[in-house]
Design goal:
four-stranded mixed beta sheet; alpha/beta; Aspartate Aminotransferase, domain 2; 15 strands; Aspartate Aminotransferase, domain 1; binds pyridoxal-5'-phosphate; 15% strand
């Protein structure tokens, strides 16, 4: 019999009284209380009530190497004993940040010339810094009016002021006026094409829409477009093959920088070290987070290409610094965690594993649920997959309030699996250490809960 934490009631009481949980309905949270997690090993996570469940979502897409890696804890402890922290403002540097930047450069395709790193604490911050770099790049060239950031509907880029505005999922914008220096264009969401077209006979109107929006806004007001290679939170939406070729042409034509947000896709999630390799994307700026440290410590990176860096370096008036910096930029201990994490990914061949196990996961999901009357489409991008739930397969009628996918994930949790109810999808993004046998366990649990879910959803739709 698994052991229940002796102080569980106290933890629950304190949590309810004092801790705000992100992206949570406060009213419901107070009533239900929290699930307290206390440990983790490999693909499994342990709860304070004694249960163990499979982490089918790698925390929040990020725990690439799985739980309980003492090797990372040791690297972090060793760095903390030497130098836990010192700011890297002005001319101060540290070894882990320098080594981590060089390590990631060695993993990136060399011809992208993405050589300059500013490490921060999370994906939102890294996007925010990249927006600043993009604006600064135009500003120092005498084009200060080029300040707007364009992103896609259904995109997710974070929650800070700029990153939150770039996030194109409207649910995040309710009750909050967004930063007005943003505009949106159509996503490559073929299942729900905004233009009513079907790929490949569509001329990629979704990509062309970027040009329409740049012209509407005025190219002289647009700094950059920020894009996830595979849309994550919006529903795991990979683009058609030719998509990024068009996007890049449009950016070049209008002197608009391309920021590639690889916060989810970086470090092997799609079966390559970086998703830019699948579509031959050549970004001017790159955003990394999540898998960079597998969440063992908060870490992200804004990576800028030589030409953006050199423009800012060479065009800034002599004696003026680049006036941007956060206390925890280039944090030595967080960078030490990143180095230890990447060493594990390399040594254990986790990118190669994702390349093999990801397609297996898609195949198993399609076999198990492809014909279900509540399933509209099953998509994947390597080791992440989404089952889009619909009320009606023919009309593709979506859910009005996203509650049904969340209900499926709640039922799966009761049977021992964390699968995320993500808007209209049930989504999986297991750690890259996942074996085919782990995938069989995950799919098996979903199969156990599916018949009841179908019955409930179909009955509710009547
Ligand atoms: N960009 C993408 C693609 C993400 O998925 C996320 C978070 O899920 C972010 C940015 C924001 O990262 P963070 O939550 O670390 O600020």
């Amino acid at each position: 019999m698994a052991k229940v934490a002796p102080n569980l009631d106290e933890i629950l009481r304190l949590d309810r009284a004092h801790v705000i949980h992100p992206t949570t309905e406060f009213r419901k949270q107070e009533k239900q209380g929290s699930r307290i997690f206390v440990g983790g090993r490999g693909v499994e996570i342990e709860l304070a009530d004694g249960r163990t469940v499979i982490d089918g979502f790698s925390g929040l897409w990020n725990i690439i190497v799985g739980h309980g890696r003492t090797e990372i804890a040791d690297a972090v402890a060793a760095q903390m004993r030497k130098l836990a922290y010192y700011p890297s403002f002005y001319d101060v540097g540290n070894e882990p940040a320098a080594r981590l930047a060089a390590k990631i450069v060695s993993l990136l395709p060399a011809d992208r010339r993405l050589n300059h790193f500013l490490f921060s604490s999370g994906g939102s911050e890294a996007n925010e810094a990249n927006f600043r770099f993009a604006r600064q790049y135009h500003g120092v060239r005498g084009k200060e009016s080029k300040a707007k950031i364009i992103s896609r509907r259904w995109s997710y880029h974070g929650e800070t002021r700029g990153a939150g505005a770039a996030t194109g999922i409207t649910a995040y914008h309710l009750f909050v006026q967004q930063d007005p220096s943003h505009a949106y264009f159509a996503p490559p969401y073929c299942y729900r094409c905004e233009f009513g077209k079907t790929y490949p006979g569509c001329a990629l109107e979704c990509a062309q829409d970027l040009e329409t929006v740049i012209k509407q806004e005025g190219a002289d007001t647009v700094a950059a477009v920020v894009i996830e290679p595979v849309m994550g939170t919006g529903g795991i939406i990979p683009p058609p093959l030719e998509y990024f070729g068009l996007i890049q042409e449009i950016c070049k034509r209008h002197d608009v920088l391309l920021i590639l947000d690889e916060v989810i896709t970086g470090f092997g999630r799609t079966g390559k070290w970086f998703a830019m390799e699948h579509w031959n994307i050549k970004p001017d700026l790159l955003t990394l987070a999540k898998g960079i440290s597998s969440g063992y410590l908060p870490l992200s990176a804004s990576v800028i290409s030589d030409h953006v860096y050199e423009t800012i370096r060479d065009q800034m008036p002599e004696g003026l610094p680049f006036m941007f910096g956060l206390t925890y930029n280039n944090h030595p201990t967080c960078c030490a965690a990143g180095l230890a994490n990447i060493a594990i990914i390399e040594r254990e061949g986790l990118v190669e594993n994702a390349r093999e196990v990801g397609p297996y996961m898609l195949e198993r999901l399609r076999d198990a649920f492809g014909k279900s009357p509540i399933v509209g489409e099953i998509r994947s991008g390597g080791m992440m997959a989404a089952i889009e739930i619909v009320r009606d397969r023919t009309t593709k009628e979506p859910f009005p309030n996203f509650e049904d996918p969340a209900r499926i994930s709640a039922a799966a949790f009761q049977r021992g699996l964390i699968a995320r109810g993500m808007f209209q999808c049930v989504a999986l993004a297991p750690p890259l250490i996942c074996t085919k046998a782990d995938i069989d366990r995950i799919v098996g649990i979903l199969q156990e809960v599916w018949p009841a879910a179908e019955r409930e959803i179909l009955a509710a739709g009547k």
